[in-house]
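ingest -> validate -> predict -> emit
validate: passed (alphabet ok, no gaps, 231 aa)
predict: started
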Amino acid sequence: MRLSAETATALAAYGARTTWPANFQIYQKGNAADGLSLVLRGHVILRNRIRTGRAFVPAIVPPGEMFGIEGIAHDMQYVTDAYAADETETLFVSGAQFRAFVREKPSEALDVTGQLMSERIHLLEKLFSMASQNVEQRLVASLQRLAADRSFLAPDGKLRLELKHHRLLCEMVGATRESIALALGRLVGAGIAVRRGMSFMIAPSSLATHILSNGAETETMVPLTQESMRT
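emit:
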């Protein structure tokens, strides 16, 4: 689910647009949170540092989705770092302005609330996958998430996975580079992905089919704690 253009336009009257350069840190974990932000262009990566050089990515936020929603509650702090992955444009709505939006545009506010619930459901599904799925299944789910963002797609509509994306996949999946490489190799063997040099091309439609047919029998489940210790 993505916020409709009509609702985004209504919300824009209460906020301020900002363009962020690639890799810019929008906010830091532990800082006071206020309001929320909507991605208009590009995408935002939410990241938690585990230890030096290692991190976990709970969410990638594409256009039409929101982040920093801790700020709509009182006296909250951000629970992740937020980075603009590429040049990214966002709409920031402060807590006071969001409350004005709710009062004055109740119908559109219900749409925003529905969007927030949809995003929460995605996070709950990711928690389930981290606890119950193996590396390959979690990788496929993460690839589906990337395929929802047009900036990761080639002109023919296929997901283009480049070498620079491997670290991001490790942080999304919660696995080592070696585990990701093995899982990608299995996708190539299954005909889901095609390797071109150091890149992989994947048809998004094939991911949904694979995740349904794959089940939990592809490999022995790798516990999250074990994977996290090796990342």
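The first helix runs from residue 5 to 12.
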